[in-house]
Request: fold
Amino acid sequence: MTRRLWIYSSALLLLALSVVLAAAGVGEVAGRLTDWQAFTLGIVQGFTELLPVSSSGHLILVPWLFDWHYLETHDAFNKTFDVALHLGTLVAVVAYFWTDVVNLTVAAFRSLAKRRIDTEDERIVWYVLAASVPAAVAGALGEHVFEKHFGAPWQIAIFLAVFGVILWLADRRPERHEIRDLTFRQTLAIGVSEILALMPGVSRSGITISTSRFLGLTRDAAARFSFLMLIPIVLGAVLYTGLKHVVLNPLPAGSKGPFVVGTIAAAGAGLIAIDALLGYVRRRDYSPFVVYRLAVAVAIFAIIASGVRGRNF
Reply:
């Protein structure tokens, strides 16, 4: 079985399983998030987290558009469900880059054992970890500030448009470097830029890819480095939230079904998104994602202007 066949077979199997579970209403409780809503949000998360279009923005826009208010009115559930969806995309990234993950993990322990950095893998793994620190610290310390001041649909529209243009400008830069050519300062710059993604509509992958392209990385290298950065920061969030909201404070009834369905759907969609993006950017630029971001921004303002939905959610 070829690698690509394995990827798409696994993705379709995961998506089929999530559909079956949603259709059966597994773990569903009346009045809470339904399995089909969880499936929809899992698909949205899987594709938008790994494409430069903002998963956090879309996870607000979809309930806003369809008038789903359960997550909005149940903040603790919403935060934990969001991390569960990120777990799905984490599984997709680890599975897709399994060989790289194993090699980099071995390189990290080898580097620690000898207390120096000698090989390319040892340098890259410390770059990935260092780049993950700024956003992790900012998220931990400023989570409530970002949640309080950002996340309204009209703000998301602005960020989609503005950072879409930034992505387009960055992508005009020549492709000169691979990940191995990065310096520590450049790595830190990519990590610091990721802090902006705490504002829904910016896009974690979008801003890190933009910064990487401004620094001259190839489109493929920029996407790969962005995906690798996702692993430590999402793993940390999953472990922290899992301990806080699942182990120490068990989830309420009706949570397990949507969590399982959403996570599986996100993993399946994520596998497809990674392979599709990497295959695409090896041959073309990021312009279609810029156009998509601008189109969604215009659509949001049109919906607000029509009165169908309010400017806030």
